[in-house]
Amino acid sequence: MVEQHQLSRKEIEVRIEMIRDIMVYCGTVNGLAHPETIKYSQELDHMLNKLEVSKSIV
């Protein structure tokens, strides 16, 4: 995912919820070990890390 600007904390939180919902759906349909589910899980981890960094900057 290429980002053009620094995301606000709220934008990160919204993306986390969106990715989490997609990941859960994908895991339900395709299984937890499916490559697409794993991709969303990794993307979710990335966004959670961004959220933690944004909290430590304040």
TrEMBL record:
Coiled-coil positions = none
Write the signal peptide boundaries: none
Known InterPro entries for this protein? HLH_DNA-bd_sf, Spo0E-like, Spo0E-like_sf
Q: Which Gene Ontology terms describe the biological processes this protein takes part in?
A: regulation of sporulation
| Annotated GO MF terms | protein dimerization activity
Gene3D superfamilies, sorted: Helix-loop-helix DNA-binding domain (4.10.280.10)
**From which domain of life does this come?**
Bacteria
Pfam families in alphabetical order: SpoOE-like
- Record protein name field: Spo0E like sporulation regulatory protein
Source organism per entry reads Alkalihalophilus marmarensis DSM 21297
What taxonomic classification does the UniProt entry list for its organism? Bacteria, Bacillati, Bacillota, Bacilli, Bacillales
